[in-house]
Structures are given as structure tokens and as C-alpha cells.
């Protein structure tokens, strides 16, 4: 099963894992491999079923909880996805990627205030790179919540002082709010 998995043949891999699970004393973590493969095959329900077989093991791994949440999300089970992320945050309080994942879900649900709070927690603790911060700002901007995007961009502009990209993003946001002089000053600053 592992050989097929490494070569990208996820269906054959899961078939082999399934056969192996018929034997006694088999490592139950095979279900986690089955879940990963099912996800890659876009069989989100199958991934959830595999995770359910080893709930105790799944609860010990932040990455499996994140996968479980994503499967629920892709199956349009938003409440379940949010519940799993909340559980993950409780179990792994320093696993900041849960906040990033939930941020993306909250933005798509147009719950911008909650999304901004998660972004702020993530940004304060995860020490993300400039690209990640810009993606958060862009998500808020694209959602139409320019005020929240500006709030985040202003924080980012302080954190990434040397970043012309962050400065330009903030300038564009100011233009969106028709703050022409502030935008012009930032464009000038970014060009130096």
C-alpha cells in the first residue's frame, strides 16, 4: 500500500491497505493513510469514515483534525467543519494553522469580524511570512470588507516595514475607500 501511495496510485494503495486490515494485529494507523488517500481522490466521505475508525488516534494528531475539518467543509458540512476546528484549537492550543483554516472558512461564510479575530490570533502567534499575510488581506478585500482588510494591512505594514507589496496593498485599500492622499503617500513610499 505504501509503495502505491508514494507513486500516487491512491486507489490501489487503499485497496492494499483494506486487505491488510483484514489481518489481526495490524497497525490501525493504516486508516489514517486510507483517509489521506481518500482525500486525494476527492472521496471526502470515505476519508471521514476512515478517520472515524481510529477516532482515538485522530484526536492525537492536529493534521488529522485539520483534514477532517476540510473533508466536512468540502461536503458542505460547515457546522461540522467548525466544530472540528474548535475541538482542534482546544486540544492543540499552539497549533496556529487551525486559526488560518478557520479564517478561510469564516471569510467564505461572510463572517468577517470573526475571521479578522482568527487572522489576528494567527498573525500574532504563528509568525507568518509576508505572502501569508497578503493572502489574508486579499481574502478580506475580495470579500468586500475593505475596512477589515485595511485594519489588517495597517498592522502588516508595521510588521513588514520593508515590504513594498504590503505598502502597495494598503495603498490600494485606501483607494478603495477613496482616501486618495493617504494612498498617494503610500505609493510614493513604496517606490523609494
Notes on the structure:
The structure is a single chain. The protein is mainly alpha-helical and 192 residues long. The chain has helices at 2-6, 10-20, 30-40, 44-53, 55-58, 62-74, 78-91, 97-108, 112-125, 130-143, 146-159, 164-176, 180-191. Helix 4 runs antiparallel to helix 6 and helix 10 runs antiparallel to helix 11 (146-159). The protein is elongated. It starts with a helix and ends with a helix.
Give me some keywords for this one:
single chain, 77% helix, 192 residues, mainly alpha
State the distance separating the first and last CA atoms.
Answer: 56 Å
Structural class: mainly alpha
Helix content: over 70%
Say how many strands there are: 0
What is the rounded Rg?
21 Å
* Low-pLDDT sequence parts: none
User: What string gives the helices and strands in order?
Assistant: HHHHHHHHHHHHH
Q: How many alpha or pi helices?
A: 13
Sheet with the most strands?
none
Percent strand: under 5%
Average of pLDDT: 91
What would you call the shape?
Answer: elongated
Amino acid at each position: 500500500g505504501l509503495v502505491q501511495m508514494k507513486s500516487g496510485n491512491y486507489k490501489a494503495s487503499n485497496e492494499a491497505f483494506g486487505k491488510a486490515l483484514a489481518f489481526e494485529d495490524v497497525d490501525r494507523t493504516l486508516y489514517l493513510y486510507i483517509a489521506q488517500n481518500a482525500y486525494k481522490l476527492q472521496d471526502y466521505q470515505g476519508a471521514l469514515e476512515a478517520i472515524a475508525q481510529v477516532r482515538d488516534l485522530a484526536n492525537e494528531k492536529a493534521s488529522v483534525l485539520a483534514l477532517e475539518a476540510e473533508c466536512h467543509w468540502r461536503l458542505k458540512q460547515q457546522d461540522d467543519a467548525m466544530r472540528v476546528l474548535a475541538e482542534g484549537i482546544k486540544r492543540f492550543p499552539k497549533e496556529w494553522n487551525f486559526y488560518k483554516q478557520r479564517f478561510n472558512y469564516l471569510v467564505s461564510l461572510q463572517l468577517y469580524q470573526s475571521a479578522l479575530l482568527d487572522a489576528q490570533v494567527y498573525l500574532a502567534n504563528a509568525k507568518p511570512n509576508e505572502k501569508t499575510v497578503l493572502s489574508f488581506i486579499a481574502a478580506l478585500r475580495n470579500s468586500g470588507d475593505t475596512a477589515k482588510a485595511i485594519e489588517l494591512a495597517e498592522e502588516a505594514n508595521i510588521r513588514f516595514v520593508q515590504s513594498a507589496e504590503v505598502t502597495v496593498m494598503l495603498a490600494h485599500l485606501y483607494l478603495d475607500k477613496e482616501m486618495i492622499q493617504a494612498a498617494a503617500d503610500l505609493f510614493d513610499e513604496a517606490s523609494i
